[in-house]
């Protein structure tokens, strides 16, 4: 097609070159969709919480404890002095709380506050190591 012919198309009553160009672009897009199967790729799935997370804390009283967090089950296990205590988790912004029996853990960022109501034990403040 020559430039003169394009100029003539532009003068066809009810049509202009811009309309024809837009039609061509839309048709090219439809052909590309057909060539690729006509479907966009599915969105990425949301991130899944890890099955288990382990954090070791050193407390201000010199004690070291480990917390194994199982977010998919909503529980945590406190490993302290060779004993394991299973605790139920609940979200308490800005972190979460784990409690069970006579033990309560409050975790926010990398800080752990441990409270135990056994005898006269004081609250321990612990940091991730």
Tally the helices.
2
Q: Report Rg.
A: 33 Å
State the secondary-structure class: alpha+beta
Percent helix? 10-25%
Give the spatial strand order of the biggest sheet.
Answer: 1-2-3-4-5-6-7-8
Number of domains: 2
CATH architecture heading of the largest domain: Beta Barrel
The helix/strand series, from N terminus to C terminus, equals HHEEEEEEEE
Arithmetic mean pLDDT: 75
Count of individual beta strands? 8
Structural commentary:
This protein has 129 residues and is of the alpha+beta class. It has two domains: 3-35, no CATH class; 53-128, Lipocalin, CATH 2.40.128. It contains two helices and eight strands; from the N terminus they run H-H-E-E-E-E-E-E-E-E. It has an eight-stranded antiparallel β-barrel with strand order 1-2-3-4-5-6-7-8. The longest helix is centred in the first third of the chain and has 19 residues, at 17-35. The protein is elongated. The model is unreliable at 1-12 (pLDDT under 50).
Structural topology:
Elements lengths: L2 H7 L7 H19 L17 E7 L4 E7 L4 E6 L2 E10 L2 E6 L2 E6 L2 E6 L7 E5 L1
């Amino acid at each position: 097609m020559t430039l003169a012919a394009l100029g003539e198309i532009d003068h066809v009553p009810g049509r202009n070159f811009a309309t024809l160009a837009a039609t061509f672009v839309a048709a090219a897009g439809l052909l590309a969709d057909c060539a690729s199967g006509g479907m966009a790729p599915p969105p990425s799935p949301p991130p899944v919480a890890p099955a288990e997370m382990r954090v070791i804390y050193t407390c201000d009283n010199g004690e070291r404890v480990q917390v194994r967090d199982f977010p998919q089950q909503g529980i945590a296990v406190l490993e302290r002095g060779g004993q394991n205590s299973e605790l139920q988790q609940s979200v308490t912004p800005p972190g979460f709380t784990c409690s069970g029996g006579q033990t309560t853990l409050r975790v926010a960022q990398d800080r752990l506050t441990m409270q135990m109501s056994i005898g006269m034990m004081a609250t321990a403040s612990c940091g991730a190591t």
